[in-house]
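Predict structure. Input: Thioredoxin family protein, 171 residues.
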Amino acid sequence: MKQLFAILMMGIFTLGCSQEVPAVSKTQFSKEALKQKLENEEGKTITVQEILNQHKGKVVVIDFWAGWCRDCLKAFPKAIELEKNNPNVDFVFFSLDRSKEGFDRSLEKFSMKEKENYWFSTGWKNDFNDYIELNWIPRYMVIDQQSKIAKYYAITPEDPEIQATIDRLLK
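Output follows.
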């Protein structure tokens, strides 16, 4: 009986959560996605387009995470290693914490204050996340020097395609 209950509960908690690779790997952002607003640590609103403009000419890795996400926290050491191994790449962190207080707490707790962080104050469901079919975190994307998507979908910083994409773009 306990096993049946455990299986039933796992089914309920994972309902709607899928780590499915999107059918199409997109190579650019829609106008609506680029207009999506996030907040920085100070609470200032900024669009995805403005963030990308700040990194024009650079390779960027976007790391989607949240302080409540166990998989994200397990991936942090490898994400930090990826960052250290690629000093010519800009790393930007998009938080899916559920509140500004949670975002601030996560930045402090996980020593993220020195990094470039933004928070989706609109929550998980928004034009940007819908466009990129965000269905799981952590998720990693590599953006090329022209702000196009070079690597659309990776769920671990150890995905060899992330490093291969970075190496190809930096040649």
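The chain has one domain: 27-169.
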